[in-house]
Amino acid sequence: MQDHHRQPLLLNRGEEAKAEQETAYDSDEKVIIGIDAGYDSEYTPPFSWRKLWLFTGPGFLMSIAFLDPGNLEGDLQAGAIAGYSLLWLLLWATAMGLLVQLLAARLGVATGRHLAELCREEYPSWARMVLWVMAELALIGADIQEVIGSAIAIKILSNGVLPLWSGVVITACDCFIFLFLENYGVRKLEAVFAVLIATMALSFAWMFGDAKPSGKELLLGILVPKLSSKTIQQAVGVVGCIIMPHNIFLHSALVQSRDVDHTKKGRVAEALRYYSIESTIALMVSFIINLFVTTVFAKGFYGTELANSIGLVNAGRYLQEKYGGGLFPILYIWGIGLLAAGQSSTITGTYAGQFIMGGFLNLRLKKWLRALITRSFAIVPTMIVALVFDTSEDTLDVLNEWLNVLQSIQIPFALIPLLCLVSKEQIMGTFKIGTVLKMISWLVACLVIVINGYLLVDFFSNEAKGVIFITGICIFTGAYVAFIVYLVSRGINFSSWCCPPKHAEGIE
């Protein structure tokens, strides 16, 4: 049997060709884990708290996408309109997101390449360019929401002195903060994100303490599934905003920040173990933070006339009116938490943009130039948005709906390539996913795609006006479905599902 661990990517690729390609991290940038002397390549070293600490970081950076302003808006609307009834769905949506992110980490660790690089290798030029454009559009849509969220927070904390457009300008400078931090190494950058996550946790926990939601209703909301026709739209939003296309690309690259010997099965298995633990912990923290936000708005606004009109723009004002000032006004607590969410997510967006552009196009640009180009893609349209919608909350909500639709459209173009690649033995070796995990993963993928498909159909059915518009939507839908079918058909060997060769059976 051929050894599938001698090279971290496709078999028969020369080291010289690999050296000419763009990589996520240079060798001198990676965190050194250390080597356990005396163990052969097949042996997985025993668990070590010290090593868990050294591997901790990528999962928390990944978890930022579960805490961005778009997710916070989905949380507050779910709480205000559905009360505590969708907390169970938030839990299971986070679990589905964890599964997808663990597969992304598995791909990056086992191959030594990230998703964008592998897509460049696996697909023909035309398909690769479509995937790149879709990934960039998803990133731009997410970044606009994140930058606007930061700008709203800055406006709140400045008592309205700084308008939305000035907050966008301030937030745009975060790419320079990112570049500055990156010069001090991966661990320093991860420490800054840890502080931002802690700031969010403290802020929203403070709000939770002020609001004092019902513990009994909270537990029932988590343990007892409930769904009604009145809350279906919020339910779709809860699931839809958990899977972020750019985050899949990001996590598959972040895990390469550790120095793992990909030629040794034991080292790869060890890295996967620690990344699985730290990613699970990170998403448990993100779930608790999202829980805080949902329950605060459930306690304060569920069943009230204001429930259907709450969004990011006016949420702080409504909180202030409901809970008053106190020792520290809840308006500013909300603003601090929202600012931490916006700033952290925009910086990780810049990070993801670097990997996406470099991976798909194989660009070996200097990091500052690549970050500047990536940031410009989102800042220019965001500035236009801020100038046009600064005084119109209703129009900003409509824009947010369009951005959610934009990102929903992109989900299959990250999720399907990921699942196809982690199922291939020639890519993953013995770390390919096994039949059971493959079925579960595709079931989750189909569920997420169908839920987002419902969102798209519902949105466009309300927006469809005129024969030309409807015709355009039909043509786009046909091309969209055809490309998804192409991605699936190219990546799956259906006969291997029922009768996989014994030597190719992956780890479940």
TrEMBL record:
Q: Where are the transmembrane segments?
A: 52-67, 87-109, 130-154, 160-179, 191-209, 281-302, 323-341, 372-390, 402-423, 435-455, 467-488
Pfam families reported in the protein's UniProt record: Nramp (PF01566)
Q: Name one GO biological process term.
A: intracellular iron ion homeostasis
Q: What name has this protein been given in UniProt?
A: Metal transporter Nramp3
Question: What does the entry list under GO cellular component?
Answer: vacuolar membrane
Primary location: membrane
Cell location: Membrane
- Give the record's family classification: Belongs to the NRAMP (TC 2.A.55) family.
Organism lineage reads as: Eukaryota, Viridiplantae, Streptophyta, Embryophyta, Tracheophyta
MF-aspect GO terms: manganese ion transmembrane transporter activity
Give the membrane topology, semicolon-separated if more than one: Multi-pass membrane protein
Give the keywords, sorted: Membrane, Transmembrane, Transmembrane helix
